[in-house]
Specification:
single chain, 265 residues, alpha/beta, Rossmann fold, six-stranded parallel beta sheet
Length: 265
Protein backbone atom coordinates (compact mmCIF):
# COMPACT_ATOMS: atom_id res chain seq x y z
CA UNK A 1 0.00 0.00 0.00
CA UNK A 2 2.98 2.35 0.15
CA UNK A 3 2.41 3.80 -3.34
CA UNK A 4 -1.04 4.90 -2.12
CA UNK A 5 -0.41 5.83 1.50
CA UNK A 6 3.20 7.00 1.31
CA UNK A 7 6.13 5.88 3.43
CA UNK A 8 6.23 8.54 6.13
CA UNK A 9 4.75 8.39 9.59
CA UNK A 10 2.60 9.44 11.30
CA UNK A 11 -0.08 8.44 8.79
CA UNK A 12 -3.20 10.59 8.72
CA UNK A 13 -6.64 9.17 7.99
CA UNK A 14 -10.14 10.17 7.01
CA UNK A 15 -11.52 11.38 3.68
CA UNK A 16 -15.15 12.31 4.37
CA UNK A 17 -15.71 15.43 6.45
CA UNK A 18 -18.35 17.87 7.62
CA UNK A 19 -17.99 21.23 9.32
CA UNK A 20 -18.32 24.95 8.91
CA UNK A 21 -16.55 27.16 6.40
CA UNK A 22 -14.29 29.48 8.37
CA UNK A 23 -12.25 31.17 5.61
CA UNK A 24 -12.16 31.47 1.85
CA UNK A 25 -9.25 31.84 -0.51
CA UNK A 26 -9.10 35.02 -2.61
CA UNK A 27 -10.49 33.31 -5.73
CA UNK A 28 -12.89 30.92 -3.99
CA UNK A 29 -16.52 30.88 -5.06
CA UNK A 30 -19.45 28.86 -3.80
CA UNK A 31 -19.88 28.49 -0.04
CA UNK A 32 -19.76 31.48 2.26
CA UNK A 33 -18.08 31.77 5.63
CA UNK A 34 -20.41 30.21 8.18
CA UNK A 35 -22.02 27.72 5.76
CA UNK A 36 -22.32 24.13 6.96
CA UNK A 37 -20.49 22.01 4.42
CA UNK A 38 -19.67 18.41 3.62
CA UNK A 39 -17.11 16.95 1.26
CA UNK A 40 -14.45 14.36 0.53
CA UNK A 41 -10.76 15.17 0.69
CA UNK A 42 -8.63 14.43 -2.40
CA UNK A 43 -6.74 11.21 -1.80
CA UNK A 44 -3.36 12.69 -2.67
CA UNK A 45 -3.34 15.96 -0.79
CA UNK A 46 -5.03 15.74 2.58
CA UNK A 47 -7.05 13.85 5.16
CA UNK A 48 -10.22 14.72 7.00
CA UNK A 49 -9.55 13.70 10.61
CA UNK A 50 -8.36 17.15 11.68
CA UNK A 51 -9.54 20.38 13.26
CA UNK A 52 -9.07 22.28 9.99
CA UNK A 53 -8.80 21.15 6.37
CA UNK A 54 -8.18 23.06 3.16
CA UNK A 55 -10.18 21.91 0.16
CA UNK A 56 -11.16 23.27 -3.23
CA UNK A 57 -14.78 24.54 -3.36
CA UNK A 58 -15.60 22.16 -6.23
CA UNK A 59 -15.00 19.21 -3.88
CA UNK A 60 -17.72 20.03 -1.37
CA UNK A 61 -21.37 21.01 -1.02
CA UNK A 62 -23.76 22.47 1.53
CA UNK A 63 -25.25 20.15 4.14
CA UNK A 64 -29.01 19.83 3.58
CA UNK A 65 -31.37 21.24 6.18
CA UNK A 66 -32.51 18.80 8.83
CA UNK A 67 -29.14 17.05 9.29
CA UNK A 68 -26.69 17.90 12.04
CA UNK A 69 -22.97 17.67 11.27
CA UNK A 70 -22.63 14.22 12.89
CA UNK A 71 -25.46 12.70 10.83
CA UNK A 72 -24.15 14.45 7.73
CA UNK A 73 -20.67 12.99 8.30
CA UNK A 74 -22.13 9.52 7.64
CA UNK A 75 -23.27 10.43 4.13
CA UNK A 76 -20.57 11.88 1.82
CA UNK A 77 -19.67 8.34 0.74
CA UNK A 78 -23.22 8.17 -0.58
CA UNK A 79 -21.90 10.00 -3.63
CA UNK A 80 -20.07 6.75 -4.43
CA UNK A 81 -23.35 4.83 -4.36
CA UNK A 82 -24.94 7.37 -6.71
CA UNK A 83 -22.01 7.12 -9.12
CA UNK A 84 -22.03 3.32 -9.01
CA UNK A 85 -25.74 2.74 -9.53
CA UNK A 86 -26.82 5.72 -11.60
CA UNK A 87 -23.77 6.61 -13.68
CA UNK A 88 -21.74 3.39 -13.96
CA UNK A 89 -24.27 0.55 -13.83
CA UNK A 90 -27.22 2.63 -15.11
CA UNK A 91 -29.63 0.77 -12.85
CA UNK A 92 -33.18 0.74 -14.24
CA UNK A 93 -36.58 0.34 -12.53
CA UNK A 94 -37.52 -3.31 -12.11
CA UNK A 95 -33.95 -4.62 -12.27
CA UNK A 96 -32.51 -6.85 -9.56
CA UNK A 97 -29.72 -5.27 -7.52
CA UNK A 98 -27.37 -7.16 -5.20
CA UNK A 99 -25.35 -5.13 -2.67
CA UNK A 100 -22.44 -6.83 -0.94
CA UNK A 101 -21.63 -5.12 2.35
CA UNK A 102 -25.19 -3.79 2.54
CA UNK A 103 -24.90 -2.58 6.14
CA UNK A 104 -21.65 -0.64 5.61
CA UNK A 105 -20.79 2.95 4.85
CA UNK A 106 -21.50 2.85 1.11
CA UNK A 107 -23.75 -0.20 1.16
CA UNK A 108 -26.38 1.25 3.47
CA UNK A 109 -26.84 4.18 1.07
CA UNK A 110 -26.84 1.89 -1.99
CA UNK A 111 -29.70 -0.18 -0.55
CA UNK A 112 -31.82 2.94 -0.04
CA UNK A 113 -30.89 4.45 -3.39
CA UNK A 114 -31.60 1.20 -5.21
CA UNK A 115 -35.12 1.14 -3.79
CA UNK A 116 -35.63 4.80 -4.70
CA UNK A 117 -34.59 3.95 -8.27
CA UNK A 118 -37.22 1.23 -8.46
CA UNK A 119 -35.00 -1.86 -8.19
CA UNK A 120 -35.58 -5.12 -6.35
CA UNK A 121 -32.78 -4.98 -3.76
CA UNK A 122 -30.98 -7.88 -2.13
CA UNK A 123 -28.39 -7.22 0.57
CA UNK A 124 -25.48 -9.36 1.77
CA UNK A 125 -24.37 -8.66 5.34
CA UNK A 126 -23.55 -10.34 8.63
CA UNK A 127 -26.36 -12.26 10.32
CA UNK A 128 -26.77 -9.65 13.08
CA UNK A 129 -27.13 -6.91 10.47
CA UNK A 130 -29.90 -8.49 8.41
CA UNK A 131 -32.67 -6.75 10.37
CA UNK A 132 -31.17 -3.27 9.86
CA UNK A 133 -30.66 -4.01 6.14
CA UNK A 134 -34.34 -4.94 5.82
CA UNK A 135 -35.29 -1.72 7.62
CA UNK A 136 -33.29 0.25 5.07
CA UNK A 137 -35.70 -1.08 2.46
CA UNK A 138 -34.05 -4.25 1.13
CA UNK A 139 -36.50 -6.77 -0.30
CA UNK A 140 -34.20 -9.62 0.74
CA UNK A 141 -31.16 -9.89 3.00
CA UNK A 142 -28.81 -12.84 3.46
CA UNK A 143 -25.94 -13.75 5.76
CA UNK A 144 -22.95 -13.74 3.42
CA UNK A 145 -21.21 -16.38 5.56
CA UNK A 146 -24.04 -18.90 5.45
CA UNK A 147 -25.89 -18.33 2.17
CA UNK A 148 -24.97 -18.67 -1.47
CA UNK A 149 -26.57 -15.56 -3.05
CA UNK A 150 -26.82 -17.43 -6.33
CA UNK A 151 -29.65 -19.45 -4.73
CA UNK A 152 -31.83 -16.32 -4.84
CA UNK A 153 -31.61 -16.07 -8.63
CA UNK A 154 -29.78 -13.90 -11.12
CA UNK A 155 -29.02 -10.21 -10.75
CA UNK A 156 -28.83 -7.38 -13.21
CA UNK A 157 -26.45 -5.24 -11.14
CA UNK A 158 -24.01 -6.32 -8.44
CA UNK A 159 -22.36 -3.62 -6.30
CA UNK A 160 -19.42 -5.00 -4.33
CA UNK A 161 -18.05 -2.90 -1.47
CA UNK A 162 -15.74 -5.59 -0.05
CA UNK A 163 -13.24 -6.27 -2.85
CA UNK A 164 -12.57 -9.94 -2.12
CA UNK A 165 -13.16 -13.23 -3.94
CA UNK A 166 -13.91 -11.64 -7.30
CA UNK A 167 -13.65 -15.01 -9.02
CA UNK A 168 -16.45 -16.48 -6.88
CA UNK A 169 -18.80 -13.51 -7.33
CA UNK A 170 -18.17 -12.49 -10.91
CA UNK A 171 -20.91 -14.73 -12.37
CA UNK A 172 -23.69 -13.66 -10.01
CA UNK A 173 -24.96 -11.07 -12.52
CA UNK A 174 -26.48 -12.63 -15.63
CA UNK A 175 -24.73 -12.51 -19.02
CA UNK A 176 -25.98 -8.96 -19.57
CA UNK A 177 -25.47 -7.97 -15.93
CA UNK A 178 -23.06 -5.39 -14.58
CA UNK A 179 -20.66 -5.79 -11.64
CA UNK A 180 -19.17 -2.68 -10.04
CA UNK A 181 -16.64 -2.73 -7.22
CA UNK A 182 -15.23 0.11 -5.14
CA UNK A 183 -12.59 -1.96 -3.34
CA UNK A 184 -9.82 -4.47 -3.86
CA UNK A 185 -8.23 -7.01 -1.54
CA UNK A 186 -5.58 -5.12 0.45
CA UNK A 187 -4.20 -8.42 1.78
CA UNK A 188 -3.32 -9.47 -1.78
CA UNK A 189 -3.32 -6.22 -3.75
CA UNK A 190 -1.23 -7.40 -6.70
CA UNK A 191 -3.41 -10.42 -7.42
CA UNK A 192 -6.62 -8.55 -6.77
CA UNK A 193 -5.77 -5.58 -9.00
CA UNK A 194 -4.36 -7.93 -11.63
CA UNK A 195 -7.67 -9.77 -11.75
CA UNK A 196 -9.54 -6.49 -12.20
CA UNK A 197 -7.29 -5.50 -15.10
CA UNK A 198 -7.66 -8.91 -16.75
CA UNK A 199 -11.41 -8.80 -16.25
CA UNK A 200 -11.67 -5.40 -17.91
CA UNK A 201 -9.85 -6.70 -20.96
CA UNK A 202 -11.62 -10.03 -21.48
CA UNK A 203 -15.23 -11.00 -21.93
CA UNK A 204 -18.61 -9.51 -21.16
CA UNK A 205 -18.60 -10.47 -17.47
CA UNK A 206 -15.98 -7.94 -16.51
CA UNK A 207 -15.65 -6.44 -13.04
CA UNK A 208 -15.46 -2.65 -13.24
CA UNK A 209 -13.51 -0.90 -10.49
CA UNK A 210 -13.74 2.78 -9.72
CA UNK A 211 -12.86 5.18 -6.93
CA UNK A 212 -15.21 8.09 -6.31
CA UNK A 213 -13.98 11.65 -6.76
CA UNK A 214 -17.18 13.68 -6.30
CA UNK A 215 -17.75 17.30 -7.23
CA UNK A 216 -20.30 19.83 -6.00
CA UNK A 217 -23.00 18.70 -8.45
CA UNK A 218 -22.86 15.18 -7.03
CA UNK A 219 -23.10 16.47 -3.45
CA UNK A 220 -26.14 18.46 -4.56
CA UNK A 221 -27.69 15.27 -5.96
CA UNK A 222 -27.04 13.53 -2.63
CA UNK A 223 -28.62 16.44 -0.75
CA UNK A 224 -31.70 16.20 -2.96
CA UNK A 225 -32.11 12.50 -2.13
CA UNK A 226 -31.82 13.34 1.58
CA UNK A 227 -34.35 16.15 1.25
CA UNK A 228 -36.96 13.94 -0.42
CA UNK A 229 -36.51 11.21 2.19
CA UNK A 230 -34.99 8.59 -0.10
CA UNK A 231 -31.69 8.44 1.83
CA UNK A 232 -31.14 8.73 5.55
CA UNK A 233 -27.87 8.43 7.45
CA UNK A 234 -26.95 5.54 9.73
CA UNK A 235 -24.36 6.33 12.41
CA UNK A 236 -22.88 3.29 14.14
CA UNK A 237 -20.55 5.00 16.61
CA UNK A 238 -19.31 8.50 17.40
CA UNK A 239 -15.77 8.69 18.78
CA UNK A 240 -13.64 11.65 19.90
CA UNK A 241 -10.54 12.34 17.81
CA UNK A 242 -8.22 11.10 20.55
CA UNK A 243 -9.82 7.64 20.25
CA UNK A 244 -9.48 7.35 16.48
CA UNK A 245 -7.11 4.38 16.84
CA UNK A 246 -9.78 2.38 18.66
CA UNK A 247 -12.32 3.40 16.02
CA UNK A 248 -10.11 2.02 13.25
CA UNK A 249 -9.59 -1.24 15.11
CA UNK A 250 -13.36 -1.59 15.48
CA UNK A 251 -13.78 -0.99 11.74
CA UNK A 252 -11.21 -3.65 10.96
CA UNK A 253 -13.14 -6.13 13.14
CA UNK A 254 -16.16 -5.73 10.83
CA UNK A 255 -19.86 -5.82 11.53
CA UNK A 256 -20.31 -2.06 11.08
CA UNK A 257 -23.80 -0.59 10.67
CA UNK A 258 -23.54 2.55 8.61
CA UNK A 259 -20.63 4.82 9.45
CA UNK A 260 -18.19 5.43 12.28
CA UNK A 261 -17.91 9.17 12.90
CA UNK A 262 -14.91 10.84 14.52
CA UNK A 263 -15.85 14.05 16.25
CA UNK A 264 -13.41 16.95 16.57
CA UNK A 265 -14.47 19.23 19.45
Amino acid sequence: MRPVSGRRFPQRTGLDFTGEAVALGPAATGPAVGDRIWGIMPRTSGFGAAEYVAVRPRQLGRIPKGLDVVEAAALPAGTTAITALRDKARLRPGERLLVRGAAGGVGHVAVQLGKAMGAHVTGLARADNLGPVHRLGADEAYDYRATDPADAGGYDVFLDTMGKDFEAHRRLPGPAGRMETIAFDVERPVGSLGYLLASAAHGRRRVRFFSGNPRTALFNDLAAHVADGAIRPVVDTVSPLEEIGAAHRALEAGGVRGKFVVRVD
